[in-house]
Amino acid sequence: MQTSLANKPRQLNEKWLLLGTLLSSTGNSMIWPVMTLYITGVLNQSFTTAGVVLMIGAMVSLLGSFVGGKLFDHWRPYAAMVMTSIIILTAVASLIFFNKWPVFAILIWIANFGMGIEQTLVNSFATTVPGQKTRVIFNNMYIVLNIGVVLGTLAVGYLFDYGFSLLMMISTAIYFGLMLIIVTKFNVSVDAADPVVSNEEEQGNKPTITRKKFKLTPVLIAIGALLFITYLSYMLWETVMAPHMKTLGMPTRNYADLWMINGVTIIVLQKFVSNWANKHPYHVSVILGSVIFALSFFFLIFVTTFWQIVLVFELLTIGEMLQSPQVPAWVAQITPKEVAGQAQGFVSMMISSGRVVGPIYSGVMMDHGWTDILFLSVFIVMIIITGLLAVTMSRRVDKNPVA
Q: What pTM was estimated for this model as a whole?
C-alpha cells in the first residue's frame, strides 16, 4: 500500500527560518540603538532612568524566554509563534503614535516580552530543520541576524533625525512581513521523541510513562554563567559607549558607523570562522572566542580615537563570531530533544539576565566616573568564568569527546 505524500508532515524550510531571522533582526535594530539617546535627548529623562528602562526591558525579555521554552515543549509552537508576532507588531505599531513618556517605556516592555518569546521559539524551531547539522543552521542564522543589524543601524543613522515615528513606521512594516511569513510558513511538524514506556506494559500492568526533564548539569551552569557575563559586557556597547565616545570628542554618527562595521565584518568573515569552528569540538571555539572577547575590554581602557575603538570592536567581533553561534547549537547537542524549547529558553534567559544587570552595573560605574574600572572588571570576571568552563570541560571531555 502506498503512502500519500499529502499525509507527510511538512517541515520548516531553512530559507524561511533565515528570512524570518533577517526581518526580526532588522526591525529590532531600528529600536535598540537609539533607546538611550531617545530617552535622554528627546524625552528629557536621566541616564539612570534610561538604564532602568533597559533593565526592566531585559527582565521582561527574560520572562518571555522562559515562557517561550514552555510553549514550545508543552503547547503548540506554531500558535505560539503567531501570537508572539501579533504582540510585537501591535507594540511597535503603537509606538508610531504613542511615543511620549511614560507610554513609550510601557510599549517597549511589551515588545521586549514578545521578542523574548520569539527568540526562544525561533532557536527551538532551528533545532528541527532537516538536512543540515544544527551548528551550521545556527551559523547561518548568526550571519543573517547581523545582516539585519547592519540594515537596521544604517536606517537609524540616516533616518533618526527625521523623527522616531518614521523609524517605527518602517519597523512596523518589517514586523508585518515577519508575521506573514510565520503565519504561512511556520505551520510545520515539530518532531519530538516518544515518551519512554516501561516494560510493565508487556506484563499486563498499567504502563509508566517517563518524560525527560531539563536538568542543569555542571557544563550547562558554566555555559549559563559565561552567557551572563558575555551579554552583561556586551550591554556596555549598547549603553555607555555612545556617551563615552561623545566624551572623547566623537560625533554620534560614529557610534552608528561602529555597528555597521561590526555587522559587515561578521557578514564577510563568519563563514571562514565557522568553517574553522565546525572542525573542532564546541568547547574549543567557545572558550577561545570568550578569551578574545574578554581581551577587547582590557584594550578598551587605553583607546582614545575612533579608529582605535574600531580595532578593539573588531577584536570583540572575532571573539563573538567564535562564541555566540556555537552556544545554542552546543546546548541543543548536550540536552534531550524532548526539552529543546526549555534548553533554548535557558540560553535566552541567561542572555537576558546579562542584559538586566548590564545597564544598572554600567550606569553606577559611569556615575562615579569609573570607566576604566568598569572595563577592567568585566574583563577579569569573564576570564575567570571562561577558566571555570575550561576546567569543567577538562573533566568531561574524556567521557564525551564530542561535547
A: 0.75
